[in-house]
Amino acid sequence: xxxxxxxxxxxxxxxxxxxxxxxxxxxxxxxxxxxxxxxxxxxxxxxxxxxxxxxxxxxxxxxxxxxxxxxxxxxxxxxxxxxxxxxxxxxxxxxxxxxxxxxxxxxxxxxxxxxxxxxxxxxxxxxxxxxxxxxxx
Length: 137
Description:
Elements (H helix, E strand, L loop, with lengths): L1 H4 L9 H63 L5 H30 L5 H19 L1
Helix pairs in contact: 2-3
């Protein structure tokens, strides 16, 4: 490709012409590599998007499955007690489980909050004060 662009063979060209050609070729190489990187990222991004969509669909189907299991529990309990009472019992059990999960989750979040690095903050304040004193003198 270089020989097609240049009129003279490389042996007859001056150093300046060769450096100019080299600069142009390096620019083209970098452009081509960037284009290839963009293409790869687009392709991987599409695959990641598809995977995320399928993962979301799996979560939705799991939610439907859990709802079906709740309905099955209500129907099974309805064999022993009236249907409305079975639904109320299952609802109370689900609300109790939700409340317990919320309390445990709150406890975990509270414990997960990082402590304030008071020593580091006071050290930074001392450093700032030292710099301020150095600037004033």
